[in-house]
Amino acid sequence: xxxxxxxxxxxxxxxxxxxxxxxxxxxxxxxxxxxxxxxxxxxxxxxxxxxxxxxxxxxxxxxxxxxxxxxxxxxxxxxxxxxxxxxxxxxxxxxxxxxxxxxxxxxxxxxxxxxxxxxxxxxxxxxxxxxxxxxxxxxxxxxxxxxxxxxxxxxxxxxxxxxxxxxxxxxxxxxxxxxxxxxxxxxxxxxxxxxxxxxxxxxxxxxxxxxxxxxxxxxxxxxxxxxxxxxxxxxxxxxxxxxxxxxxxxxxxxxxxxxxxxxxxxxxxxxxxxxxxxxxxxxxxxxxxxxxxxxxxxxxxxxxxxxxxxxxxxxxxxxxxxxxxxxxxxxxxxxxxxxxxxxxxxxxxxxxxxxxxxxxxxxxxxxxxxxxxxxxxxxxxxxxxxxxxxxxxxxxxxxxxxxxxxxxxxxxxxxxxxxxxxxxxxxxxxxxxxxxxxxxxxxxxxxxxxxxxxxxxxxxxxxxxxxxxxxxxxxxxxxxxxxxxxxx
Length: 488
Known about the structure:
Elements: H1 3-58, H2 64-76, E1 81-83, E2 86-88, E3 94-99, E4 104-107, H3 122-128, E5 134-138, E6 147-157, E7 160-170, H4 172-222, H5 236-286, H6 293-324, E8 333-336, H7 337-347, H8 349-354, E9 358-362, E10 368-371, H9 373-390, E11 396-407, E12 412-421, H10 455-465, E13 469-474, E14 480-487
C-alpha cells in the first residue's frame, strides 16, 4: 500500500474514532434518556393525581365509579395534537389505584382487575414500603412493542399510606421518538464520516504532494531532463529534497566528468593520430629524406585541419558543458521567432550563396516565446547548419514556425514549433535512436567527413532548458525535418 493510502486510512480511522464513537454512545443511550424524561413527567402526574385522591378521601367523596366514568370520557376524547412529527389522536395513559394491601380498587383500562392483588408488583410493593416505585412490563413478553411504563405515588391519609396510585404509559410514542432520534444520529454519523473522509483526503494530499513533487523531479533527472528544483517548505520533506538534490548534483558531477573524459579521449584519438603521423613524416624530411612539396603541403594541411577539428571539439564541449551545468534559465525574455529566423538566415547568407542553396521561410509573424534569446539563436544555427551539411548543392532549406494547441490529460495549452527541413538523404534507420547522442555524427553529403557530433545534443539541451523538446525525422518525399518545440 502506498504511503498516501496509509496516511488516508490512518487519518480516517482517527477521525472516525473521535467523531463516530460519541455518536454511537449517544445512540445507545438515547432510549434511556427518553425514558428518563417520560418517567420524570409521569412522576409529577402520579403525585398530582394522588393529591386529588387524598383530597377526595378527606372529604369522603372518593368513588372508583366516578373515576371510571371520568377516564371513559378521557379515552373517548379526540385529540389533534401535532407533537413535532407525531400526530397524537387520543390519550394513551392509564391509571390504577390499590389499597394499602395492594388490592386493586380502580383500573381505568381493565376494570376486571378490580379486586386482584397487585402487592407483588414492584411499583406497588416499593411504594407501600415508603420508597419510590416504578417498573416497565411487557403485556406480551415476546413483543417489545407491548412494553409499558408504570410510575407509582403513595396516597397518604392522616400521615399513613392509604394506598398506591400508578400511572401507566405505553412506550409506543417513546419508541417513535427514539427511532427518529437514532435516524438523525445516523445521518449525523454519515455526514461526520464524509467530512472525516474529506479531511483525511485533504491531509493526505497536503502531506504527499511534496513527495510526489520530489518524485516528478527525480524522474525528470532520470529521463535526462534538467527540471528546476521544486519549491518545498522549510520542513523535513524540504530538507530531504535539498539533500537529494545535493546528492544528485554530486553524482552527476562525477558521472559528467567520467563521461566527458571518455568521449573526449575517444574523439581526440583520431585527429591526434593523424597529426602525429604527419609530424613524424615531416620530421623525417627534415632529417634529409626528400619529400615532394605537394606532399609536404598536404601533410601540413592535414595537421592544420585536424588541429582545427580538435579546437572545434573542445569549444563545443565547453559550450555544452556550460549548458548542462545550468539547472535553470538565468535570463528569460520575450523572443520573437520571426526575428530569430531572419537573423539566422542573414548569418548564413554567404554559405547559402556559395553553395547555390535556396531558402523558403515562413516565419510565423507575431509568435514569441519566453526564453534565452542567445541560446535559442545558437540552437537554430545548429539546426540550419545541420540541414546545410546534408543538403546537396542547389538544394532548398525550409524554415517554418507556427503555433499548435496541445490537449493532454495533465496539460492543455499552446506551443510554438520551429521547423527546419532539408532535401538531403535523410536519417538511416540505424541512426534514428542515436542522432542526439554526444559525438554521434553521420558523414556529410558533400565531403564525406563527420562533424563533432555535439550540435544536435546542444539543441536538445536548449530545448530541455526551455521546457520543450526536439525531434528529427525523415520526410516522405525525401530529406529530414527537425522540429524545435517550445511552450508559448
